[in-house]
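Appendix B, example 12.
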Amino acid sequence: MHEASIAQSIVEVVLREAEKQSARKVESVELEIGELTFLGPDQIEFWVKNGFQGTPAEEAEIIFHQPAGEIACDACGYQGRLTLREDPAFHLALPSFSCPQCGKTPIRIVRGKEALIRRIRILKD
């Protein structure tokens, strides 16, 4: 349940920034959570909204962007999308990635492991 700890960090950053900017209200929070983080957007939203209760961010809209997983293979030169099958086991252990073109490992993750706050929209007095 690493979504709860990630959400707690998001809540802390958003509320700290809102206070620093003397925000009356946080209107929205835009998050970029890469596909290869295996973080569940629904769970993150649940915990973030829970953490926002009773704060200026209580009614904030949570907007998600989920960059697709992209890899690079030094063995064959492939660079592109990493296709993942849905597997509940991914919540317990990360899958082993290999190149979809040549099947070799290791590969480099180029995109899809982001977990960041892209934008916070606030309303001042």
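The first strand starts at residue 23 and ends at 33. The CA atoms of residues 32 and 65 lie 5 Å apart.
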